[in-house]
Amino acid sequence: MKKTHIILLILVIAGIVGMSFFVKDLTTQETFSTAQKKSGKFVVIKATLDKSTAIEYDAVKNPNLTVFYALDKNGKRCKVVYSNAKLTDMEKSESLDLNGVMRDGFFECKTIQTKCPSKYKDDPKNQERNLPTATNTK
Amino acid sequence: MEFIGEHLLPGKLGHFFILLSFVSSIGATVFYFLSVQKSRKMGSEPWQNLASTSSDVQWKKLARLFFYTEIISVFAIFALIFYISKTHLFEYKYAWQHSSKSLEPKYLLSCIWEGQEGSFLLWTIWHCVLGGLFIWKEKDWEAPVMTIVSFAQVILATMILGVSIYGWHIGSNPFILSRNSGLLDNAPIFHNVDGSLRTDYLSLFQDGNDLNPLLQNYWMTIHPPVLFLGFASTIIPFAFVVAGLWTKRFTEWTKAALPWALFSAGILGLGIMMGGAWAYESLNFGGYWAWDPVENASLVPWLVLVAGIHALLIYRHTGNALRTTNLFFILSFLLVLYSTYLTRSGDLQDTSVHAFTGEGITKWHLRIFLFIFMLPAFTLLISRYKKIPFVAKEEETSSREFWMFVGSLILFLSALLIIGMTSIPVFNKIASLFGGKEKLFTPLAIGEDSAYSYNRIQIFVAIILGAFTAFGMYLKYKSTSKEFLKRLIVPTIAGFILGGLILAFGNVNYSEKGYGYMAAVWVAVVAATYALVANASYIFTGQKGKIKKAGGAIAHFGFATLLLGILISSSKKEVLSHNTSGIFMPLEENNRVIGNAGENLTLIKGVQMDMGKYWVTYTNDSLDVNKGDKWYYYLDFKTKDNKSGFTLKPNAFVNHKGNMGLSANPDAKHYLTYDIFTYITSLPNKSSTEDTATFREKIAGIGDTVFYSKGFIKLDSVVVNPAKSKYNFGPGDTALMAALTVYSKDGPSYQARPVLQIKNNQSVFLVDSVFSQNLAVAFTGFQDKKIKLQVKESDAILDFITIKAYKFPFINLVWAGTIIMVIGFFISALHRRERLRPVRNKAQGKQSHAAREKLPV
Lengths: 138, 857
Fold this sequence. Notes:
Chain A is built from 3 helices and 7 strands.
């Protein structure tokens, strides 16, 4: 099976090369403080929306700019600039995965993944909220 | 304690059938197992000439009875869940959680598989159907294969068992009552002062939680059953392999397994692409594929299964690659289980848009499901690996099997890479077990452009597979003569010319990722075109147009079409909604933003916007009356040369069921060669501008006036089927339009034209607004020869929407390719099945099939 062995070898090498490209692309989950040290590098930050400040989004003025504040897991607050429409479920999100680059004084966000109770309807908190209570009936 | 209005019988019956299905699947497993062990003791070739009195046959008959009981129980469970959802028995948590009174009947089935329990039930049902079919058709392999299928049924039954043993919760019972599920515990309204539940608690349930709006799409009624049939059917090739290893009949199963494997690959492929179609039509990631973990998790078993089929074909024709076949079929089922764990345990939640939580069915349960199959299968494979026959002689480079083998290895490698990349959260989880307090290890995440991380590896897979499928069919098994190779010349030249033409005139210039990647896309386009042309011509030259035999060529032709569709539609995707509105405010200097900024465009009602080839106007919106909160937004697209136009109606659930925000569904206009696709990304936030105004009902006859804060409204007339209006009714619609004149205190008067439209026996209200008066008027019905008007005054009338719009060229190639490929798989499966029959009667037990069957695929 000489030929097959050669082919296998080539494929293994191809696999390693492919994987190494992928690994090179991998980034790390950071906090705002650690991201500051890696300024200019693409990172992922697990954060929550700071609900004490309103999300700035004016679709008439610029539909591609959303500015808000987020808290990372250590509670550090940072301004986030997201060059896209405000995500529709952002306010109710439990957490936000911010993918982007730390700049001077703000986090430039490229994509956001939200974790929302509504998408996960098995979540008990959301179920309680949706129960037909006096304020919540239609 | 008795509670008023509860229907407890369906739940009791349901749980009884769950227990019955659990017990009967154990029975089937045990007795099938005994039957196999008995007959193995009886001699080397006990499979034929069995006397009906021998004990293994007795065991088998008993096992069959148990399996039939299992089938009945599972269908009964399914029917009962359907019943509680259909009759809105909200005393059951499942019905409350997944349905609502306003849910359209066509989505009732989707309620069943929205929940974890229901989707496992769906899987179980398909095992029952496949098992029943197997018992009927595959007598030879019934006992060992059905042992494995029945065992899977035992594990699946534990998923919905819902019992607790020593504090361990096993599975989640879909018939659990709302009051027992903890659902009502923190809602004081249901309780008496002393904390006990009110006996009339049920009357307080107004409505269910409803099906997730994203799943209220017809694809969701059809995609999960097909996909789960695909998942469920991968157990058959797996069970054949394990049965062969177990009974040491290493080669005999291969013939019977082939049609099952082909069927499985066809149906799984169809299910995956239906998921793509659903994503395309109802998710907003702007495409049919996003390398989302849930999608990857279904693709990977398919890739490995297809690799396994190719390996099996090699074995059937040459005697090579049997060990590889064993490995691939085992892995494809195990990957289905691994995927189930990945997507349903909640471990993936962070990276996927549609992973499920770990509620109900626990992570450990799913992990056990994987390991309980993995350990015995691998133990058997490793311990008996050396006994699996293999051919020492090397394949010729000119033989078909050589290239098929390399091709299937590449499919396998591609699958490994994809699942490896998808498993990053699992690696993080495992690494964090060792890392202590996350000091040693920073959790990893997929980089900047996750789709590109996949694409730039898989593009090479596409190139190689495209080329292999093109010439592979022209080669012969064992070795190919030069004469034979000459048949390749014409298709090769034609394929390259056509590919070149596509590149020359198709404008496939995807330079976003650099010229290297663009060159790779070009090569892939040529390879796919080559495969398409070569396989098309092979159907006629190689198989002389005999469709029955050409399943393989048809599947490859479909695959090539799909590949070409993927390449062209994704590299030529065009953003139409580039912000060209003129009201774009440039960012401050230090807020410099990179990336694909500017894909959102805000449309102000009535104002025409420039979108590439089109002028687009947001003309109107209407409320779906059955769904109180589902709004349709009418977008008029007109080509700039004014020659043609169409209306798209993307919709959105606004604040559905008390959830803040909107959940938007896209709409698309389909043309033969491209689609125009649009969806809503933002609506004016009603809550932020405190739009507390509600519609107030007013009754008015013709000539009557109705007052509002800034003036009055006069009803001039009611027009039936208004011919000329801004609404453009179709000939089949019935519409009543109220012609109103709004007289404001300041002087000017305005026209308002709310419409009550009857469409498919449902009324639709087209609300009309007078912006300068902040006034919205709806025409909602009749009362005593007068009409009912709903009038709303507010500061925040919805008068603009923000959308994204794309042009997808040649998306139809993707769908057509999929359909052709699936048809190819099915033709092939039928053909293989037919060829089984005469052979089985003549020469049973002999292994000379390789020599006998030299027919190409």
